[in-house]
Amino acid sequence: MILESLSLGNYLDEHMSSTTCVLRVMKYQVPQITEPTYTSKAHTDKNLITILYQNLVDGLEVQTKNGEWIGVELSQDHSFVIMIGESFRAWTNGRLHPPYHRVRMTGSEARYSAGLFSLFKA
Ligand SMILES: O=C(O)CCC(=O)C(=O)O
Ligand SMILES: [Fe+2]
């Protein structure tokens, strides 16, 4: 869909055959202090596209263009967040921008998330 919107639909097969995916499951421990803690530093992903799933405990924050951090609120419990990474920015000659994001932990429950990271084959 992204490629089609950039009139790059003809490159879809080439794209699919030159990329691979890594699935990573993450656990964020309950913070030891009562204030909210940032358990992942603000970053952009370096791969092509990331598909994220967070299980029950929210915490993902994304930075807007004017520098404001907003918590990602999903419309339904079992929704996915899709973000592009730096490789996709390079691949589209800077037409799309990967978002800075981080994870903010509050409360008393550990947080689990799963990320499917697509990247160019080595
Ligand atoms: O756990 C999350 O929701 C975000 C993880 C993340 O940003 C990453 O692994 O690059
Ligand atoms: Fe990330």
UniProtKB/TrEMBL annotation:
Annotated InterPro entries: IPNS-like_FE2OG_OXY, IPNS-like_sf, Iron_ascorbate_oxido_reductase, Oxoglu/Fe-dep_dioxygenase_dom
Q: Which UniProt keywords apply?
A: Dioxygenase, Oxidoreductase
The record ties this protein, via PROSITE patterns, to: FE2OG_OXY
Q: Name one GO molecular function term.
A: dioxygenase activity
Which residues fall in a coiled-coil region? none
Tagged with keyword Protein biosynthesis:
no
Query: Which residue ranges does the record assign to the Fe2OG dioxygenase domain?
Result: 19-122
Secretion signal: which residues?
none
Gene3D superfamilies cross-referenced by the UniProt entry: B-lactam Antibiotic, Isopenicillin N Synthase, Chain
Superkingdom field: Eukaryota
Read off the Pfam families from this record.
2OG-FeII_Oxy (PF03171)
Q: Note the PANTHER family from the entry.
A: 2-OXOGLUTARATE (2OG) AND FE(II)-DEPENDENT OXYGENASE SUPERFAMILY PROTEIN-RELATED
Name of the protein = Probable 2-oxoglutarate-dependent dioxygenase AOP1.2
Please tell me the species this chain comes from: Populus euphratica
